[in-house]
Design a protein that fits this description.
Domain TerD: 27-164
Structural class: mainly beta
CATH topology of the largest domain: Double-stranded beta-helix
Pfam families: AIM24, TerD
InterPro entries: AIM24, AIM24_sf, TerD, Trp_RNA-bd_attenuator-like_dom
CATH superfamily of the largest domain: Mitochondrial biogenesis AIM24
CATH class of the largest domain: Alpha Beta
Distance between the termini: 54 Å
Number of strands: 26
Helix content: 10-25%
Number of domains: 2
CATH architecture of the largest domain: 4-Layer Sandwich
Radius of gyration: 24 Å
Protein name: TerD domain-containing protein
Region (Disordered): 173-210
Strand content: 35-45%
Shape: globular
Amino acid sequence: MTLLQPGEKRSLSDFISGPRLRVQVTHDLSQADVSVFGLNGDRQLRDDRYFVFYNQLRSPSGEVSLQLDGARATFELDLQALPAGVERLMFVISHDDSPMSRLGQLRLSVQDPQGSERATVLLGGSQFTAERAVMIAELYRHGGGWRLGSVAQGFQGGLDSLLGYFGGQVASEATPASTPAPAGAPPPTTSPAAPSPAASAAQTGQGSSVAEFLRRSAEQDRPGDVFELESSKMLEVKVRGRVWSKLGAMVAYRGQLEFKRSSTLGDLVGGLRSGGGMGALLGAAMRIGSGEMGPLVSIQGQGVCYLADQGKEIAIIRLQGDTLNVNGNDLLAFEDTVTHEITMQRSVAGMVSGGLFSVQVRGHGMVAILSHGKPLTLRVTPNEPVFTDPNATIAWSEHLRPDLRVSQDLRSMLGRGGGETLQMAFQGDGFVVVQPYEESPAMENVPRH
């Protein structure tokens, strides 16, 4: 049995051998509704008969059927029988009143026709806040077959918002449309506006989580988008112009692509411009030389490139006008539409360590970050600052300005103390993400004469 992480996509043939399968959703949120949308290639519901829910338990020819039993919803699927106009099945849960933060646990189980579980997607209430609808997972056509993707994207507006987002008719009561359009009908001249996703960390001031990052990316992740997770440790990048990646991250590619190593001069000037002075400039040069922040590579042309880094886990973040600070060593790739700037931390500890390097990414577009193992997101509040090991710190929210501190404990200097010599101190309102692994301290790699 395979557990899919948020944002991960796998070939359905890895689990199920034929076109028939069962998808079962169990949860503990009272009076919540589970349903499925049959969407076209533009992620639009062109035939309301392929919206299968409590008031419409079957698609026109029974390709999709739903059986409800309390907090368990079971879908019987025959993918081969679906018309060509239905290219994606999106499984969702919604509630009229209660937010998904009250959800204890949700389990989506992909099973063979006999009911043997082959793959799962797990969600919990701690991943959500005020959202009243969540896209759990999806099945979609890809390369002549089908793929399974974990989505975990929430919307505050509930089922009506999702129905409108997918182009369905929002009525006063949820009933099937009386005159449905054929599955292959052309799209309307105007698309309905998408509902606002759950507020970001910058908007709420309450911090965010890695799961929220992945939910935002999964909402827009579709065939044709630039980034897609082939597995939790492999990123597929569809290059149609230019993208940026970490040096040495390319493992394979096809098509006409050109790889150009960017100059580090701009990074050094950026460090100086950020207010670090000459000490920050020297620190930046030392960090680049020691390998903590390798130069970026521009990938240009037309083709597909596969990126990975030392078997680390990959998370896709879709920036929607947001700003995020990422440890330089943990930034894998980003779209050309995303602006970036090298930033430095000013402190005596910064001089000792050669200046702590991070990359601030902002704007609109996809960003891929790295983590050794499953990351942990810690909330930061004005009354509860968070202290982390710099070598285990991956990212932090926009408005946090961490200080790098040196322990004054002589035992720590002699290696006999219980704490770390260098610590990052986060104070304010936001979040910080750490990994269960310490990268090699950058100064260990600096040549000594």
